[in-house]
Amino acid sequence: MTDTTTETRSGAGPTRARPRSRPAQEGRWLAWVFLAPASAVLLALVLWPIVYSMWRSLFDRTGKEFIGLGNYQRIFTDPDTFTALKNNLIWVIVAPILVTVLGLIFAVLTERIRWSTAFKLVVFMPMAISFLAAGIIFRVVYEEDPNRGLANAIVTSVHDIFNDSSQYPGARPRDAEALPAADAGGFASAAQVEPGTVLQIPLVGVGADELPEEPTLATPPGEAAADTVTGTVWFDFVRGGGGTPGEIDDGEAALPGVVVQAVRDGEVVADATTDDSGQFTLEGLDSGVVQIVLPAENFAPPFRGVSWLGPGLVTPSIITAYVWMWAGFAMVLIGAGLSSIPRDALEAARIDGASEWQVFRLITVPLLAPVLTVVLVTMIINVLKIFDLIYIIAPGSSASAANVIAVQMWAVSFGGAQDFGMGSALGVFLFLLVLPAMLFNIRRFRQEQL
């Protein structure tokens, strides 16, 4: 067997390496034989599409006319594409930072709780869900109807704790001429009344679920004193039909809890709330006419929550779904880096009198900087090519407001426009955006192996 070592003789010229042995050469060729299939697949599925996309991006929609960098110029002038660029910038700034910060918090706090393994399992579990399934889940979570959407069910429940909902939302007077709608909301009598007057105020448009469980039958009011205005508010509807509109018929229900006000010269001089029988009495009225007002608080529609998937909130809502999915991934990576930190440095800082916040800020975070950087850059790569969540969650009315580059690339290519020149330009542009982050990650991995 030929010796492959290098020899240096005294007084001789520079060193000279002897030729490689035959087994080494054969092993090198064998390695290429095994790498050839994978290289062919890589060339066919990765390198060739990249090269062809670059070439196709230089042509127009039909692929017949060469337009040079015209498609790339349209990227920065087309309104839809500009919105996609703006949203991608929001994603790159917000989502990776949120995922990394939450992963760091979870990783540090789980070291201090008893059931850390169970907690990590729950936080990491969304990673087992596909983007399609997660998109469907959050599409339901963000439903605007509180009876279906979890987010609005929580919001409306909290809102109703601190704010009373209206008693009869959507109700209105039977006689719109006698009680027309007021400028400030609610209804105000067209004619002014004097103290001692007895009123009957029939309402319609009351939902069956808004009536008391055991409603009291409405009864006509009694006589009014000289300094009062009295009356009855009732639901002017007889089950099964019949009855005389504007009059209290048998079987018609009283409406308790309706606020009635007496207004004079724009000021409320008396108010009352109807009792279980629907009757009210405005007391202590001085001589002179007053206007009877049913304020808007009686009829205002209930709070139905937030339009999470509206144009203004659709992007933050989808980012929240993304953070829910990837916070567990960041927690696991950062937790692995946290376990490799030497405990001597942490204990020495505590012995020297450092608080837990100082230990975290001055010892833990600097030592975790390489791991945090890898997580942050990986998240940047992911959000640059985000597609699934936005395509599934954003409704048609908010699709343009939630648009990103990957979705726009699909839309112009396969969504009906069939503009493969513009789609290829967007694909190349997205590739150029992702490439620096990928190279940075590769460089970090190589440095760690040295």
TrEMBL record:
<comment type="similarity">
    <text>Belongs to the binding-protein-dependent transport system permease family.</text>
</comment>
<protein>
    <submittedName>
        <fullName>ABC transporter permease subunit</fullName>
    </submittedName>
</protein>
<dbReference type="InterPro" id="IPR000515">
    <property type="entry name" value="MetI-like"/>
</dbReference>
<feature type="transmembrane region" description="Helical">
    <location>
        <begin position="121"/>
        <end position="142"/>
    </location>
</feature>
<keyword id="KW-0813">Transport</keyword>
<dbReference type="InterPro" id="IPR050809">
    <property type="entry name" value="UgpAE/MalFG_permease"/>
</dbReference>
<feature type="region of interest" description="Disordered">
    <location>
        <begin position="1"/>
        <end position="22"/>
    </location>
</feature>
<feature type="transmembrane region" description="Helical">
    <location>
        <begin position="89"/>
        <end position="109"/>
    </location>
</feature>
<feature type="transmembrane region" description="Helical">
    <location>
        <begin position="359"/>
        <end position="381"/>
    </location>
</feature>
<feature type="transmembrane region" description="Helical">
    <location>
        <begin position="420"/>
        <end position="442"/>
    </location>
</feature>
<keyword id="KW-1003">Cell membrane</keyword>
<feature type="domain" description="ABC transmembrane type-1">
    <location>
        <begin position="85"/>
        <end position="441"/>
    </location>
</feature>
<keyword id="KW-0812">Transmembrane</keyword>
<feature type="transmembrane region" description="Helical">
    <location>
        <begin position="318"/>
        <end position="338"/>
    </location>
</feature>
<keyword id="KW-1133">Transmembrane helix</keyword>
<dbReference type="Pfam" id="PF00528">
    <property type="entry name" value="BPD_transp_1"/>
</dbReference>
<dbReference type="InterPro" id="IPR035906">
    <property type="entry name" value="MetI-like_sf"/>
</dbReference>
<feature type="transmembrane region" description="Helical">
    <location>
        <begin position="29"/>
        <end position="51"/>
    </location>
</feature>
<keyword id="KW-0472">Membrane</keyword>
